[in-house]
Specification:
It is built from 11 helices and 18 strands. The protein has 381 residues and is of the alpha/beta class. Helix 11 links the parallel strand 17 and strand 18. The chain binds NADP nicotinamide-adenine-dinucleotide phosphate and zinc ion (2 copies).
């Protein structure tokens, strides 16, 4: 490691030997919370991060947002969880040390890590900066096979996420947090922010367009803020009557209670674009009917159970389409962070200690989040 600052707690940068030469980097002990099975609550877990290599950034995690994907994964709702599972992919922390080939980051800098920590880097999608759509193998921040696991790890050891005190990540998958943004409130930008920014940009959202955001949770509230900052007329659809005032405060021009058929009908055939963030299976036709000719509804919510099939006639008439979108590439994530820095956009958060994570999951299931839980990792140190 070229440079190091003293990390808090048990973390360590590379030490100088008696001769003054840098000693080899050592694995980094980390404290975490993990799920041990789909039905057990998350609890204390300790492990080691790999010894940082020349391109690695060692990060002391300060804050980690709680995404609904963490809950889907911890409870094996997508049927692909490896246990123990340490969730967390909305990570903000301070650089402790950097490898000697690291160019972009310095110790002490505030940085972020999102949903990915590696990809093949050679396929057309990686080369285009869309690593999230890698044709070969993408390494997600948690619950992926960790090809860089510490020496001696069992084959197939999985990656561990940001519900932990330390991260070691290749600099190409580390983001810079703009100065002026509150680091805790910026953490949710690393998933909720980019997952909403990327489709809004892809479908060209701008002034003069009418955009719907479905669901006011972690993703939805970022979608409202970002679509508004892009200049669109924003309509929020919510199932929660108690969120109407918040929806307007967050930037929606209008809030529609989606269970009210009359309110929905008033918007028929009028939307250019709808971003659907709902975490549960529901009737998509109710929204497809609100799209105008050539309008698109993009699904980013990833429910455990499939949506009932939409009516094909709703698509055929008016040439409407449905699409999906997965987070965003690294370059686009930095663009989103810079956009948020410029527009002073962060998440509305409720800070929790790590020990409250199981309660937070229960509240998330009741749509009782205003509007993102963020874990203060000081609670684990
Ligand atoms: P969240 O904070 O729990 O918000 C989801 C919102 O959906 C709720 O606040 C609620 O909003 C609405 N909702 C929940 N249950 C509903 C139901 N039965 N019917 C209608 N509306 C319902 O979750 P999140 O973290 O924003 O994540 C949302 C989804 O996106 C999850 O499935 C997550 O896994 C997925 N996700 C996908 C990506 C991607 O790359 N595509 C990235 C991150 C997350 P109202 O109270 O306003 O109705
Ligand atoms: Zn997420
Ligand atoms: Zn690739």
């Amino acid at each position: 490691m070229a440079t190091a600052v003293k990390a808090k707690g048990r973390s360590a940068g590379r030490k100088l030997s008696m001769s003054g030469a840098a000693a080899p980097a050592e694995p980094i002990p980390a404290r975490a919370y993990a799920a041990r099975s789909a039905t057990s609550p998350l609890g204390d877990f300790s492990f080691v991060r790999r010894a940082p290599g020349p391109k690695d950034v060692q990060i002391e995690v300060l804050y980690c947002g709680v995404c609904h994907s963490d809950l889907h994964t911890a409870r094996n709702e997508w049927k692909m969880t490896q246990y123990p599972c340490v969730p967390g992919h909305e990570i903000v922390g301070k650089v402790v040390s950097v490898g000697k080939k690291v160019k972009k980051f310095k110790p002490g800098q505030m940085v972020g890590v999102g949903c990915m920590v590696e990809s093949c880097r050679t396929c057309p999608n990686c080369r285009a900066g869309d690593e999230q759509y890698c044709d070969n193998e993408i390494t997600f921040t948690y619950n992926s096979i960790d090809h860089k696991a510490p020496a001696g790890s069992a084959p197939g050891t999985q990656t561990y996420g940001g519900y932990s005190t330390q991260m070691v990540v290749d600099e190409d998958f580390v983001l810079s947090i703009p100065k002026g943004l509150d680091p805790a409130a910026a953490a949710p930008l690393l998933c909720a922010g980019i997952t909403t920014y990327s489709p809004l940009r892809h479908w060209g959202v701008k002034k003069g367009m009418k955009v719907g955001i479905v669901g006011l949770g972690g993703l939805g509230h970022m979608g409202v803020k970002l679509a508004r900052a892009m200049g669109a007329k924003v309509v929020l659809f919510t199932t929660s009557a108690g969120k109407v005032a918040d929806g307007k405060r967050l930037g929606a021009h209008e809030v529609v209670i989606s269970k009210n058929a009359d309110e929905m009908a008033r918007h028929a055939n009028s939307f250019d674009f709808i971003l659907n963030t709902v975490a549960a299976s529901h009737n998509l036709d109710a929204y497809i009917a609100l799209l105008k000719r050539d309008g698109n509804m993009c699904l980013v919510g990833a429910p455990e159970h499939p949506h009932p099939s939409p009516t094909v006639f709703n698509l055929i008439f008016k040439r409407r389409s449905i699409a999906g979108s997965l987070i965003g590439g690294i370059r686009e994530t930095q663009e989103m962070l810079n956009f948020c820095g410029k527009h002073k956009i962060v998440s509305d958060i409720e800070m929790i200690p790590m020990q409250k994570i199981n309660e937070a999951y229960e509240r998330m299931l009741k749509s009782d989040v205003k509007y993102r839980f963020v874990i203060d990792l000081a609670s684990l140190k």
